[in-house]
Write a structure and sequence with these properties.
Number of strands: 16
Radius of gyration: 22 Å
Order of helices and strands: HEEHEHHHHEHEHHHEEEHEEEHEHEEEEH
Strand content: 15-25%
Distance between the termini: 13 Å
CATH superfamily: Alkaline Phosphatase, subunit A
Number of helices: 14
Shape: globular
Structural class: alpha/beta
Largest sheet: 8 strands, mixed
CATH architecture: 3-Layer(aba) Sandwich
Length: 494
């Protein structure tokens, strides 16, 4: 029964509202869709010391969304949501282990929609989350087989001809199969996944540039392990990176946190990092960012050489954010700003607002309707995002009052014996701050609340949920949160 409901709510099923098409005879715009993994907005144009010259040049041809958010801060729910235009609750996907087609077999996807409307669609790298599941990627979405889309991060060993250069990073806990958590080897870019993803994207672009295309390039970084080639580690003096404040927010409920098992290991065999190890992890995250940036640069160079850049839309996003010690957390799976907020760029040829930044709230699932409108395609029925085209035309405008993120507890509940969450945290981000409610899974009762005003973003160090001075903001936030997540829906996963 649920599948039938989703079919009406979230599938295209031939019922569409036509958008204004491109002028007759004009070439249809191409789409270069680029995604990074575990990438919070650590790049120069967001005020970070990260060394990102290629993202900086992309920003110069884009509108930059400073307040863009994922719908859940873990790979599979986030990617499934943005690529179908449906929220995690609609898809019933809140974990990494369930392929979105297991519960929604006929749902359309962003690349499939373009394929069905005459585009040649290709995938290089990680776009759909796939390695926990039997079905690899989503073959029906693409015009040719996917490339390097099915693997694990822990299998990203350095592949070189001849002897393997030594790892000059400190000895590390081996938490990613046989790959150290961090390694620093003097190897070429193509030794790791993202170098090979970039090379394949350049090759595919040359192959398909003569036809309307949707080319998705999914970089595996800056996700752990922190193993960028040595030259990217050498870009940073770790003593000059931002000082870590590991403090938990005062007054925050325990349920807001997690055990960081993605990086520290699974209890009871968890690693307690020394300050030196934490500094190395943070250094490695920034090295991974610069490695990713260099690969992006190769793809942008190829597009500029292709002769079709003047009719190609470029988008760049992270699938969710990440903690590297802040709040005492490592990894993602929280509703905090560090996990929920993502980098978000949209570049449209000839846009007079390129180089501008917008404070308009945006969600990852807004990309589907935005790209559909930009390319003059009909709009699928049931998309739950909003087109951001009005913001691209005027960055001072806004299309929505709030952005929503959620996460269950335990974070990886599907690996627990009963495979059910105990609580669900639902969170709303307004222009003035973030409000979160933690609800009992079976009863729907709210058991804890958090409120962080904008004066403390992104650190979120003081929970103001019960502060009378913030009562008006809480009331506004509650109203919006309850519109999206009604309190009369306990146990919606059952």
């Amino acid at each position: 029964m649920h599948t039938l409901l989703v079919a009406f709510a979230c599938l295209w099923i031939g019922s569409s509202v036509a958008r204004a098409a491109a002028p007759p005879g004009a070439p249809r715009p191409n789409v270069l869709f680029i995604m990074a993994d575990d990438y919070r907005p650590e790049l120069a144009t967001y005020g970070s010391p990260a060394i990102t010259p290629n993202l900086d040049r992309l920003a110069r041809r884009s509108v930059q969304f400073d307040r863009a958010y994922c719908q859940q801060a873990v790979c599979n729910p986030s990617r499934s949501s943005l690529l179908t235009g449906c929220r995690p609750d609609t898809l019933r996907i809140w974990n990494n282990g369930t392929h979105f087609r297991e519960l929604n077999p006929d749902v359309t996807t962003l690349p499939l929609w373009f394929k069905e409307h005459g585009y040649h669609t290709r995938c290089t790298g990680k776009i759909f989350h796939n390695w926990h599941t039997k079905e690899k990627g989503d073959a029906r979405s693409w015009s040719a087989p996917e490339f390097l889309h099915y693997a694990t991060h822990g299998e990203d060993h350095a592949l070189v001809t001849g002897p393997l250069p030594p790892n000059t990073a400190s000895p590390a806990p081996r938490l990613y199969t046989s790959v150290p958590l961090y390694e620093c080897r003097d190897v070429p870019d193509e030794a790791y996944y993202d170098g090979r993803v970039a090379a394949e994207a350049v090759r595919v672009l040359a192959e398909i540039k003569s036809q309307p295309f949707f080319l998705a390039v999914g970089f595996w970084k800056p996700h752990a392990p922190f193993n960028a080639p040595k030259k990217y580690w050498d870009l940073y003096d770790r003593k000059k990176l931002p000082v870590l404040d590991p403090a938990r927010p005062t007054g925050a409920p325990d349920v807001a946190f997690h055990d960081s098992r993605e990086v520290r290991g699974i209890p009871p065999n968890q690693v307690n990092f020394t300050p030196e190890q934490i500094a190395e992890i943070r250094h490695g995250y920034f090295a991974n960012i610069s490695y990713l940036d260099a690969q992006l640069g190769k793809v942008l160079d190829a597009l500029d050489r292709s002769g079709v850049a003047d009719r190609t839309i470029i988008t760049f996003i992270g699938d969710h954010g990440y903690h590297i010690g802040e709040h005492g957390l490592f990894g993602k799976t929280s509703n905090f700003e560090y996990d929920a907020r993502v980098p978000f760029f949209v570049s449209t040829p000839g846009n007079s607002h390129a180089r501008k930044r917008t404070q308009s709230l945006a969600e990852l699932l807004d990309l589907f309707p935005t790209l559909v409108e930009l390319c003059g395609l009909p709009t699928p029925a049931g998309l739950e995002g909003a087109s951001l085209v009005p913001v691209l035309r005027d960055p001072a405008k806004s299309v929505k009052p709030a952005a929503y993120t959620q996460h269950p507890r335990p974070a990886y509940y599907d690996r627990e014996p009963d495979k059910q969450p105990k609580t669900m945290g639902v969170s709303v981000r307004l222009a003035g701050g973030r409000y979160t409610e933690w609800r009992d899974w079976k009863t729907g009762e709210t058991i804890a609340r958090e409120l962080y005003d904008d004066s403390q973003q992104p650190a979120e160090l003081h929970n103001r949920a019960h502060d009378p001075a913030h009562a008006a903001f809480r009331q506004q936030a509650e109203r919006l949160l309850h519109q999206q997540f009604p309190t009369n829906r306990p146990g919606i996963h059952r």
